[in-house]
């Protein structure tokens, strides 16, 4: 597979993943689909906006750059083919890896610590002491009185963010290598499309 086709394929995979992260982070802001709990009752990991900033916007840019790198060369079939766009994609992909790592670390911490919730009349991170063991013990999920169903809500969305950011790291890594090869070797499609 030539570097241009690979870049386009990776870019078209990164764009929906970044949008999934943005939507998941937006849903974390409204536990149980209610805005009542947004003021002062959300965990720090939700407010760090890792899905919106890290897995979302910081990966959306490399996704778009990869799709553009897979297009026709900025200088046509002559001087540099797609080398200019591939070089831009190298830096964008490195930026995307950092964003996905940020999303992964914050989401992983969100899963380990658990949500901020009301238990016995006190708002706190009551599941933090379990060091993530609550994930396997669903009876502890009902101990949080408010917001309603906050534990399954957070577990589902943070797990989605962890999975999406892992895929983003892999895809941005592939594009980083692919774009580096494209900078030095050009895009094989330029030769395929050249008149005989």
Which descriptors apply to this entry?
single chain; 196 residues; mainly alpha; 6 helices; 62% helix; 3% strand; arginine binding; membrane; L6_membrane
Give a structural overview.
Pfam families: L6_membrane (PF05805). The chain crosses the membrane at residues 12-30, 42-69, 90-113, 157-181. This is Transmembrane 4 L six family member 5. Keywords: Membrane, Transmembrane, Transmembrane helix. Belongs to the L6 tetraspanin family. With 196 residues, this protein is mainly α. The protein has one domain. The chain is built from six helices and two strands, in the order ααααββαα. The protein has helices at residues 3-28, 44-47, 50-69, 83-113, 150-185, 188-192; strands spanning 117-119, 122-124. A two-stranded antiparallel sheet has the order 1-2. Helix 3 (50-69) runs parallel beside helix 5. The chain starts with a helix and ends with a helix. Residues 74-79 and 190-196 have low confidence and may be disordered.
Task: Draw up the topology in text.
Elements: H1 3-28, H2 44-47, H3 50-69, H4 83-113, E1 117-119, E2 122-124, H5 150-185, H6 188-192
Helix pairs in contact: 1-3, 1-5, 3-4, 3-5, 4-5
Organism: Microcebus murinus
Subcellular location: Membrane
GO cellular component, one term: lysosomal membrane
